[in-house]
Amino acid sequence: MRLELQDGTHDYHNFWDASLEGKGIRIEAGHTFESITGILFYSFSNYKLVPRKNDDFVGHVTSVKTSEIIPEQFSLNQNYPNPFNPSTVIQFSIPNVNQNGKIINNVMLKVYDVLGREVKTLVNESKQPGTYEVKFDASQLSSGIYFYTLSAGDFYQTKKMMLLK
């Protein structure tokens, strides 16, 4: 669903997940509202608007079902939380094709220690275009610096994370 946000100095245009978990209202195509009052969260390049109560939905503007947004380029985001103990989440995005117009066949996300030894393979498979989150459980590892690398086609990127116990 597309919603617009104004803060007085900027206009923001974003796509939002319009479902509420737990007790609340699930807005589907055809339902209507004019405004939502709530708390705005931002994490992993995504916004989430969380109404505080059902009365925070007002009015009549039709919501429209949108297709899933396909990323235009590769991205490997910083893990969250960082530093972490004992687990963290790594988010990455896979576009429809790479920079050379080739279809992506295999995606690999691996974790390495500071000596360059592979610690864990988190992903090693074909992935459809989209944005993914992978949980990394480091409960069996020692405190320290670790690196995670995403490789897919011609794309290769590494980020650093810190495990504190």
Strand order, main sheet: write it out. 10-9-12-13
Count every beta strand, where a strand is a DSSP E run of 2 or more residues: 13
Helix content: under 10%
Oligomerization category of the chains in this entry: single chain
Q: Determine the number of helices (DSSP H or I, runs of at least 4 residues).
A: 0
CATH first level of the largest domain: Mainly Beta
* Average of pLDDT: 74
**CATH arch. level architecture of the largest domain:** Sandwich
- Judged by helices, strands and strand pairing, the structural class is mainly beta
Largest sheet: 4 strands, antiparallel
Order of helices and strands: EEEEEEEEEEEEE
What's this, in brief?
With 165 residues, the protein is mainly beta. The protein is 0% helix and 47% strand.
Describe the structure.
The structure is a single chain. This protein is mainly beta and 165 residues long. The chain folds into two domains: 57 residues, no CATH class; 89 residues, Macroglobulin (MG2) domain (Immunoglobulin-like, Sandwich). The chain is built from no helices and 13 strands. It has a four-stranded antiparallel β-sheet with strand order 10-9-12-13, with no helix packed on it. A three-stranded antiparallel β-sheet has the order 7-8-11, with no helix packed on it. Strand 1 and strand 2 form a beta hairpin. The N and C termini lie far apart (41 Å). About 12% of the residues have low confidence.
List the helices and strands and how they pair.
Blueprint: E1 2-6, E2 11-15, E3 35-36, E4 38-43, E5 46-51, E6 57-58, E7 75-76, E8 87-94, E9 107-113, E10 118-125, E11 130-137, E12 144-152, E13 155-163
Antiparallel strand pairs: 1-2, 3-6, 4-5, 7-8, 8-11, 9-10, 9-12, 12-13
